[in-house]
Every structure is written in C-alpha cells, then in structure tokens.
Amino acid sequence: MLLFPNLITKTIMRIKKSQVAVEYLIMLGVILFLFSIVWGKVNQVAESTRINVRVSNAEAYLEKLKTNIDLVNFYGEPTKIEIIVYVPDGVNFVNLVNNQIILGVQTSAGETIMGVKTRANLTGSLPHKRGTYTVFIKASGEFVNLSY
Q1: Which distant-in-sequence residues (6+ apart) come within 8 Å of 74 by Cβ?
Q2: pTM of the predicted structure, to 2 decimals
Q3: Fewest C-beta in 10 Å: which of 11, 87, 106, 138?
C-alpha cells in the first residue's frame, strides 16, 4: 500500500503537464523556424521580381525613345513629335552620347548600365527621375533634339 497516493498522483500529473508544455514549445519553435525559412524565400523572390520589372521597364523606356528618334530622323527637319514615357524607379542617370542613349539602373547587385544606338546624333536631355513625362523629339539639321 502506498503511504501518500494523492501526493504521488499529483506529482505524476505535474510531470505530464510539464512534458506537454515542453512539447508545445518545441512544436512552436519548429513552426517558427519553418515559417522564417519560407518568409525569407518569399522576400528573395519578391526582390528578384521587383528588379526584373525595373529592368524591363527601363528597357521599354529606351526602346520607345529609340523607335521615335529613328522615326523623326527618317523624316528629317522640321519633324517633331511628343511621346509620353514612363521612367521607372531606380534609374540613376540618362546620358546622350553621340547617337547613343545610356541609362544606369540600380539593382541589388549594383548599377546596371544599358543603352541603345539610334540612327541620329542626339542633343538635349531626358528625364531620369521616376514618373511619367512628355518628351519632345525634334529633328534639327544633322541632330535630333530631345527635351521634356
């Protein structure tokens, strides 16, 4: 016969409750660990997508300019047109060098430089801050003048 049956039963119950609490804490830790791994991967994919969209928008900006500059150059003076362009976030600079438009886009790996060649020598300036702009393209002599 046991001398203190209630005391032994209570002690066993406390041990079982403690064991259950520890098991729940371990499960919670594992779930949080797995969640943090998934969250990190989601953020990595989101950043990669954001950079791809930024670079694609910059390429579209350059291509739209090139197409319209070549068109104005083909028809010659006094041709002039207005186009609406979207400059994406992350564009650091836009330079006109002879017949090239050179653009720098900020990415997670640093700055990516891209450019296009046109059929005409270029003068003027282009926007490099994020937003929508009206760009004026005008043929003048041997050059195509760009302004916004």
Answers
A1: 119
A2: 0.73
A3: 11
